[in-house]
Task: structure prediction
Amino acid sequence: MIQPPLVPAELALTADGTPFAPAYADVYHSAAGALEQARHVFLAGNDLPARWRQADASAGFVIIETGFGLGLNFLVTWQAWQMAGAPGFLHYVGVEKHPLRHDDLARALARFPELEALSAQLVRQWPLLVPGFHRLHFAAGRVSLTLLFGEAEEQLARLAARYDALYLDGFAPARNPAMWSPTLLATLTRLARTTATLATWSVAGEVRRTLEHLGWRLERRPGFASKREMLIACRHPAVSPAPSFCAPEKPLAATGLATQHTAQHRAIVIGAGLAGTAVCECLARRGWQIELFERHSKPAQEASGNPAGIVLPLMTRDDALAGRLSRACYLHALRRLAELAEVRWASCGVVQIALDAAHERLQRDTVEAHAFPAGFASFLSRKDAEALVGQPLAHGGWWFPGGGWVAPASFCAALLAAAGNRVVPHYDSEIVRLERLGTDWAVFDATGRQRARAPHLILANAMAASRLLPADLTLSLMPIRGQVTYLPTTRRTLPALHHVLCRKGYLTPPAAGTVCVGASFDRNDERLDLRVADHRDNLAQFEALLPGALAQIELPADLGQLGGRVGIRSATGDRLPLAGTVPAPITPHQATRLTLDGVPRETGLHVLLGLGARGMVWAPLLAELLASQLAGEPLPLEHELVAAADPARFQLRRLRREHEARKKV
Result:
């Protein structure tokens, strides 16, 4: 189902300069002072910053705000957290149906010079206005902001989180009743810790009655400025919510939020490619200690060692799970690339050329149906695409202006550099066996020597993971051989190219004296030899991308003289990655009674595998997901997308099929 496009907020000003929303005929904050209102209502109302000083330094404090608006409550909270020298991590979740355009946000926040140092960072990272979850990091990772763009009821129902404080904000209940509905408040109550508090400026009777029915113990306090009263509340665990107010339960066990959190922040990661280094950086940012094992002499020596990885999303007309997950991962990858130093990459834009006229119509229809912002994706006619590329093309196609190419090895190196000494690498160290020892996992090399043990073990070593996991565990992993062909830019009349072109294959702009053309796609083939036949196929893809250009290039008579590289990618049967905790053994009969939420797990054993040809897109956000699961934080993805990447999905399907087959015997 296609999510409705976001409608950006239209920002106006009242006569006294207060930001005003014409659609709701209401102001964003009190005319008496936005920052003072935030401190009085939301900080003091939730006993902050006093509660931060008493918090466990290894834990995170989670706040949810309904109605993110201008972001002032977040910025004031971040400022107070910083000034208090609070320990641990601050996780802030903000929901917004009508987010501001980037330039409107910048203008609105410019009115608050006191917050300039913080607001500039928010403006710099402000996401494209695309529905769904967007995870941003500040203060060297100690402050995270998860923005949920869309209808509050829908977005919060998809959130896996447990919060400590709730900022009930938004336009007045009379003007925007959806933001105060019983269903929404019930969903928020379900996400609350037993020690959670809330604060709101509203004392509307319907809001009070709903909160009381849901088991909140209310207290009226003096309001801010001309507002006579406000509400604060804490949970009243002895009171069960009235059935009519209960939101549908969505168990959190499968997300790892409920079961995988541990006080021992130590982990082992196997594999130093894109997946493994991304996991290392995400855990190190949270203060974890990691031992990294890699069988090669340095990182990124297998599929992650290709000279160029293409960064673009997967587009689907019906907004299927693959398209939604890819979109979220793509946008997150672009943010991480912009944040990390020393990554060799170019945000030069990607043109995905249609396969034929029918595909061209599908591309146009997809963009029109989703109404994405132009900064994310647009459709170019053949004429417009040719004008952009500067070369004749067979068809028009999608244009992704933020996409481009990355040298994956440089990304891996930047991730490890960011992780610093929290990661201890062990190169030339192949792990051949895993063993559960008490509450730890231990890893052993070929000599039988135990190399390390820790409460958490993450397999991020592509196809090699299959040799470490139980033979009866179905992950549906398969090797995909991919050969890239190198064309030196000294080749006579090689077309000038400033953007990545892709169709069935891809073509990069010149980098370090080479143009990359690729890549072959051979299932269940793990041989690493360069093949003339694959060079020939790659050159055919070059011709399909730039009709007539191949004839103008001086090529060697023996294509075996061309350079290239072979990488073995791991992919799954449904072409979606695997990210999460490994399932524990169950019987076929048990499988018929379980959903993914209820599948038992091998505590502490996790995977990030099956990234296929989209490792640069999948790895950063799925590593963030896995780290959030292990740390017990709000998850950066909707629960449907977490389930789409769940490593238990193939095992559950296989066991159900076995059960049905036995019934027929």
